[in-house]
Give the backbone structure.
Amino acid sequence: MSVDSPGHQSGVKSFFSGVLRPKKSRQVLRKSGASNPNLRQTASRQGSKLSSDFDGNEGVPDLPPLAPLEAHRLKYRALHSQVDKQLGERQDYTTMFHALGIQDNSESAGFVAEDDSFRPPGDHDVASLSAELWAGIAMYLPLSDAAALALASKTLLQRLGTGYFSALEDPDHHRDKIGFLVRLDSQLPLHLLCFPCARYHRRIKPGQECLQPANVVDPIFSCPEAHNSLNPPPRHRLTHGRVLPFSFVQLTTRAQRFGAPVYGIPAEALSRRWKRDGWTHNTRYLVHQNRLLVRVVSSGFADPGMPLSAQRMLLYSREDYWPFFSACAHWRDGELMDACKCALGHIPRPRATAGLQGAEARVRDAFAGRAYNPNSFTTLCNKCRPMRRCPECPSEYLIEIRLTEDKSDPRSRHFRHAIVVTRWSDLGDGSSPLTSPEWAACNGESSPDQPYDSFAQLGRRSISGIFESAFTQETIPGQRIISLNPKGVKLGENGHGWY
Ligand SMILES: [Zn+2]
Ligand SMILES: [Zn+2]
Ligand SMILES: [Zn+2]
């Protein structure tokens, strides 16, 4: 009973009922519907609805459609049901043989190849308009679209002429020429569009293309511009000495977009593992909804209690002062490097054992009833634990301190703390480096009038979540994602925070 109610009694009973009454503020925060559903009411309501449906002979009501996340889980649960959770190995090889026959291309949304073989011929309608009128129509189109229109049929070519094709050869119209050539991609499976020359080259080893380190010469096609350093092919820097040429983004996404393996190579063929400068890296790729996603895991052994100079030696290369791990073009702005240094500061220091200090510490531990473990797990703080998302490109970072086996000396293998920086990125749909916003953003080449806003583009779906759920049936614990550059200060190399 409430104190304010009209018929309240004064005394001890009403005092206690007033004290134990729930606060008004708690009632405001609680939703009556979703979090505290009244099951009995809902069940009786549904029961009466069902019975009314059956009375009216309208049949069984439709099941509610699955939520997208649940549908995704169901799909991958079925895919991974025979895979060992710990080792990633197939438990039943018959499933593997059957899976080889089923190529699920249902996710290749975005590009739908139109089958126009049954369309009635429209040449008569096209021919009914005069050449001047068609030229007037083409005047309103960009050059690439006008050239594509002229190529559409023999009648249109007669009406529009070949002037648009010769105009595309002008070096000033390089961008238009690429826009025109990209449309022919589906008809040239054994060729690949080269962007520095704006022409199709024949692939040297179709299906056998191999991603090599940056210092290995292994061309996909023979290109006259290959050795012209003033006109380099588009590529993305992964780590020191490792780049991903745009040709490989083309090859992997084309194979899925056009639904035939002959167009390219599978994304799994790009995965690599290598060591350099004391760091171990491994990469893995996934084509999701026609866009190539990459994960780079880099780990380097770190000692406890490192001074700032030693942290810099561990994190930065002395050659170009880039971090050893994989980073997007915007790593200097924001808190990525501060968070790495913060994580290094959490590695537990070994105990001082000089003189009687060790004995004293052991006695203290015995009294407190605790065990000292120099290899204990490291807990990170609020600054370095959350996942970070770059606000200017589709990249996400996770910093961890892991206990990793050091195998450098085969006679004394032991576990050491290592800093592990994982980066997930979306490298775009591989159509063209000029039109793919994700590719431009990852390379820091977004146009200033159309900046990429990753939080608006990605929303609540994280790249890391999409990537990891494609390889495991486990539910991945949610990780808080915060901005890499919460203050939005963009100083680049001129800033002071990055070193
Ligand atoms: Zn070329
Ligand atoms: Zn921290
Ligand atoms: Zn970025």
Notes: The mean pLDDT is 80. Residues 401 and 419 are 5 Å apart (CA to CA). The longest strand covers residues 414-426.
